[in-house]
UniProtKB/TrEMBL annotation:
GO cellular component assignments: chloroplast inner membrane
Keyword Transmembrane helix included in the entry's annotation: yes
Name this protein carries in UniProt: Dicarboxylate transporter 2.1, chloroplastic
Taxonomic source organism: Ilex paraguariensis
InterPro entries from the UniProt entry: CitT-rel, SLC13A/DASS
Keyword Repeat belongs to the record: no
Lineage: Eukaryota, Viridiplantae, Streptophyta, Embryophyta, Tracheophyta
Protein family: Belongs to the SLC13A/DASS transporter (TC 2.A.47) family. DIT1 subfamily.
Amino acid sequence: MSHAPSPSYIPPRPTPHHRFLLRLPPWKGAKLIPLAISISVGLIFRFAVPKPHQVSNKAWQLLSIFLTTLTGLILAPLPIGAWAFVCLTLTVITKTLTFAAAFSAFTNEVIWLIVVSFFFSRGFVKTGLGDRIALYFVRWLGKSTIGLAYGLVLSEVLISPAMPSTTARAGGIFLPIIKSLSTSADSRPKDESARKLGAYLIQSQCQAASNSGNLFLTAAAQNLLCVKLAEALGVKVSNRWVTWLKAASLPAIICLLATPLILYKIFPPTTKNTPDAPAMAKRKLEQMGTVKRDEWVMVGTMLVTVALWISGEALGMASVVAAMLGLSILLLLGVLDWDDCLSEKSAWDTLAWFGVLVGMAGQLNALGIVPWMSNSVANSLKSLSLGWHTAFVILQAAYFFIHYLFASQTAHVGALYSAFLAMHLASKVPGLLAALALGYSTNLFGALTHYSSGQAAVYYGAGYVELPDVFKLGIVMALINIVIWALVGALWWKILGLY
């Protein structure tokens, strides 16, 4: 005879097995798999690859650390600035470089010119001057979709020499305006309506940014880095700002004029007319009111600074000094304050990792690695009985399409520019031609993929263009740009005497 259990009796619950397991806090450091791969690349190269007798142990060790740095730039175990600092620390700990040698590039004037220029970008955004300029062009040219595209492109050209961050121009000025225009035309992201207007304007602006960045030396941070690395290899660029502009002007202007029209044909918007766009721009301009005192100061300061960049060599004033003077005026007149400069994280991040990459590249050259690599490649090309023209084409193509492995134009420059320029020089390619062509290529591959540059990531993140279209349009427009630069550039550079 069974008895019912007492109501007060509660059977013991089995203890779950997982209670005996140790709970670890979530990992917050470097991404472990990319970290392991990056370190392994350097270790394998250092200890498993035979060292050529022409190369010293110190140089070989620095090259292995540089390869670890490069792999980390691609795989991103840490943010790029943090990873560069870790690798720089490694060069000092292993006594590959002295502390002074490791940090020597942090006094480089070109790097500080880039940093100060980022502060100018902050001024354009803070005062609203960049928005005002873009809205004026929308008001003047925005009655049709293609006119709207040209208005946005032309406004970026006007702003670019004084705003050297293509990412800042994209995210701070043009993307908000494009979003506003698209919304007013009932064109929404991640929706079939994206093709009405938003997708076309996004792609037009993204692709055109490659050539607006090419037009002026100060239109993109990587341009200044290219010039500095070229001069470190003995390529003299006299009157930098004017020389860059003269060589880029004709092919860049043709590409800028062609880009919105070509995309209008191969990636057409379904909305052809935008009669409401000028009215929207007019309303926004009325909301902004008359041009403010800070905007006038910004305009005057940038005109003075750009004039000094153009005539600086004749006046004996370095570009960085002209930029410092401009920033000092903005600080003294209250357009910017020091907190604005301190909060410009991209500027300080650029200082950190540009300094590391430029320093490593310089030491690789000083220790003989870059000359050894370039001579090896040049000798291989010579063994095929190739003239410098053919070598130039092969090396430029390799430099361009290897960018599919990179998520940053400046990282690409820091990692490969010196090596490829040295290969050009060893192949007897005229130095100035090689240096400028590599610099122009660096801008042209900025719209190759959705990750190939900061501005490409910003525009893709808006959600108007699908990923297959990004890759398809990226390679199509890249090839069109290459053809224009090859044909027009070759003739123009011959006239200018670059070769």
